[in-house]
Amino acid sequence: MTLQSEDGSWYDEMIYQAQDQWQTYGRYPDGGQHSSYLERPSIARPNMMMSYDYINENITGWESQEMAITLELGKGWNWVSHNLNNWVHKSRFTGHAQQIMGQSESYIKEDSTWTGTFSAMFPATGYKMKMSAETEITLRGLIYDTAEPVEIKKGWNWIGYPAAIAMEVNEAFANAEPDNEDYIVGQDGFAQYTDGEWIGTLKTLEPGKGYMYHSESEKEFAYNTAIYAKAQHMYRSSAVEETPWNADKHKYPNIMCMIAELFVDETIIDMENCIIGAFCGDECRGIGKYVNGRMMMNVYGEKNEDITFLVMDNDSERIFDVVENVPFTETLLGTVNQPYPLHISGGTGILNAQSNWRVQVEDGNLYLSLNSKMFDRVALTDVYGNTVLAIEDVASGEPINISTLLSGVYIITAEQDGAIYYEKIVKIGE
Prior knowledge:
The chain is mainly β.
């Protein structure tokens, strides 16, 4: 049922579950948020209820169990959920949202007009939201009962995290009986279930975040909120590693997960001293993290994009191409037990520093030299991954004018004979 003003400036709706033929569900006529079951015939189909701040689905003891959750949403794509027992109407998000996606529904804004089948955000369900700006949205309603089972189907499941505080992944799924090689993906990382434990870059599940669970079989579980022991000291505590690249997790809606090993010829490289970056063209799409002897990485993008890889040796700060390139897909590449092989191009000297690599800035010019040979390509990128200068066929020692660059930090990449060399420079304003 929808009530709307004549000029269309405001409206109110109701959403409620299907009842049997002898029940209906409604509000008291006092204008408040109280609601009750009415012993009158109704149409046995799902309906809706909404009242600006929140929605009431369960009338049992709800006044004493009301809570609030604030969703912190970045500009661009966010994977979200909520921990309320109520449905939350789409109108709570349309002020800053440009697009809302569920697993089988969507809502898109085009020329100030919204179209699509999405109507409300349900508890224990994950969604993807594209925001026009950073914003915070506070939702209010009943506390979600975490004893309610979550149904998992074979394949992909868009799930929410309905608990009130963060939980370590192994704790959260303690009752789930996951299959070997089940995996769960979040915007900040992923983890795979292998030999009785979850291994990966995703350490905790957080309130307000949405996740994608890929299951090898149908199952159901309840979140194990009886234990919160490990998660609290891990919640938002992971240190950001310094790398020459930067990937924006909010720019794209989808994620490709990867578990890799590095090879030079047929020899496995110790990846603890390396950094892997995933790229589409010159744009960085993901940074690998070293976990249990494997390189694990979230790659952000869209279907059918061509993804390439670079490897930086931390000791020499030399950058190498990777032979393999892969089309972007939302499936996992590699497993913990069978990592995806990546082979370094021209990497025989990956652990040897190049003592004759020289970088000099003088009088607004950049000078690069290496073996007195021609560079195939020289590029400068800012800290956000934007290419600000790119030149092909640069002679060793040839001046490169950088006087017009704005103050800031820049990454130099110089390609020569299939190897890539890296250096960081800082331009200070006058």
